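User: These chains co-purify. Model them together.
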Amino acid sequence: MDAAERIVVTGMGVISPVAIGVDAFHHALTAGENGISVVEFPWETGYKVLRAGCVKNFDLAQFFPDPPEMGRASQLAVAASMLALRDAGLDFPPPHSDRLGLVVGTAMGDVDEFEAAWQGLHHSHARNGDTRDLMRLGNVSDRLAAIFGLEGPNHMVASACAAGNHAIAWSAELLRRGEADVMLAVGTDTIGFVDMLGFSRLRLQAPERCQPFDLHRKGTILAEGGATLVLETVASARRRRANILAEVAGYGISCDAAGPFASRLDDTRGMRVAFERALRSAQNSSEEIDHVSAHGSGTRLNDHKETVFLKRVLGPHAYKVPVNAIKSMLGHAQGAAPLFEAISSVLTLNRGVIYPTMNYEAPDPACDLDYVPNQAREQLLGTILSNSFGVGGNNALVIFRRWQG
Amino acid sequence: MDPRSRVVVTGAAAFSCCGFGAEAFWRLLQAGTTVKGNVGGGALRRFNPPEIAPGNDPKVKSDHPLAARLLAAIEHDLGQFLKGLKPEEKECAGVALGTAYAHLDSYLSYYQTGTEQGYQFVNPRHFPSTLPNFCTCEVNNAYSLWGSSTTVVSGLTAGLEAIGYAAAAIERGEETAILAGGLDEINDYNQKALEVAGLRSPSGFIRPFAADRDGAVPGEGLAVLLLQAEKGARRTGQRPLAEICGFASAHGIHWNDPSAPFRAAKTVRQALTAAGLDSNDVDAVFPSANGSVEGDEFEFALLREVFDKELPSILLCPIKTATGECFAAAGALQSLGAVYAVGLAPEGPSSAISVSFNGTELRLAERINRRSTALVYSSGYDGTFSALVVCGPAT
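Assistant: Joint model of the two components:
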């Protein structure tokens, strides 16, 4: 692959339940900090106490003076993207704006806007002409492009909890096709009543803690956040002397095609298709995977199934590969979660620290891999596989490689 | 798109107020069907799968109304092909659909039940249908398509974007077949959006490029194209109907911005360049035109910018006169019209009426004869814009 086709990460920005900004994110994950807190809604979900990974002390005005009115998912995406653009040393608006674009991945988008619009329409609150923007999902990517003056490709993909990795893959493809020089891959989601109610009613929401791969895991904890990677071709990065953080070596997208919850434990075919695509595009062998940043949502089925999948595709090598689940600290930020995990993967490659799977207390015989329990681990790595799987059957896997320019 | 895989259309499915099935859509389009009615003029009034599609496999179904229509249409027109794929072929077959509103009714119904009646009245199994990816995944599930599952939600041009995305995936060899298109339904919210934006026709009659046009009529529907790599299609005996030759998209193209026509024209030229063509090669345009005062004004300026003095010789086929404004499904329906126009329309004289728009004569199609190259573009009142170039199949 030549410099026009190799895709690298040159900037990162993160707004998460444990920290705002990449350095703080690294320190919080290394220390195993807990981002979960009690959250309240005016309506019941069947749980006495609801917990979620909320972003604390977030005010968009700290990033952007006099910000326009927008939903919370848009706000989180704007702040994360501003940090990422700065990290990459890019001005905004950029000088060649039609060569910079973005792909936003989200599960739900600005749900607070939908819900407010519904209240407005059904309870006769006056709404203004902005209604045209309130009623659809595409407004997050529009807003980002307008705020940062990005006139290149602009797309938004909804692949449930795999959307962030889907955004990385789509961005990388657009770069490889020469349709842009720089792309922002953005993941964002916030916590709405509908997803909290849905996860609660399905008994997928844990009452207190997210304990991926633990014997006594009781489900996931929903979360919110925004995270952005600045991606560009090696040629573009070299041209502008950008600091290259890692390479997006490959990616694979697929579907379980087995119903909304893909509930059969032994059916890992769709996952395997995504894995093979990712390996093929990275020109890697499975033995070259040094570490897996797991989807690790903490639900009984998903963690078991992900373990089965890893053992099938990695074979005996699976037992040598550290597998971590940072959702144990952050909660499950849906479409933003893959971007959190992408950033943690790039940080691991650069700083030589594998972040721990927290709340891991009792090994599950069915989940018998090395899950990096409770303590960060210093280890220099070359290649990381980052998994994400979504409701509906969406699978999106990305392989990051240490940059050795 | 050479030297990578050429992307051909080998089948299609559709459901709109123009009828059930791709053939019915085309027949009614050729017959000059016109949608009327201020509220729901383009609505799908009746849907009973055993009656409307008696040959369909009853196992291919969904509880979700829009997904049920989508699956019924796909099963009717493409079910045989999809069920005939071998398991290893299904690993290279995916789905890419664009929508602006497909999940919104389910989402807000779930919200309303949870907030007004209480959590115990919410059906937990309905939660997946509150997500925008639901309809797309239902298609993957129904036919065990383990390839990609992509739901494009960029806005009102998402259906056309999904086709562009799918064509790129086939071109680079990642997939050998993708069902690509768009779907949307009428709901309180998009009707309100049209109204508040001042785009809804008080007369209930879409008149693109007419001097007395007064807006759009809401519509709903879906269109799905079966895209395949050309070599694979020919190997398995699938007859290419048309070729997807170029695609480009842009955003922030707001109709009332004076620079919008020039930026949109640039996007059209990018799509033509990707196809190895220029504006002289285009002989039919399937415009976005929904009869709104400001939208059609913008589109006229765009067309003049792209075609200049040749504009009066270009056949314009504004299909929203027949379908209504179908939001993100519109671009996919327009693409289906273009596929038929370049691939299946009979030879013979086309029938067109001339209208004068801002002093320029425009040829609006009444009937379409065989064309060689069609330009499709989709322009949303949200500022999204996409362009697709569809050519007749290579012989």
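The longest helix of chain A spans residues 72-87.
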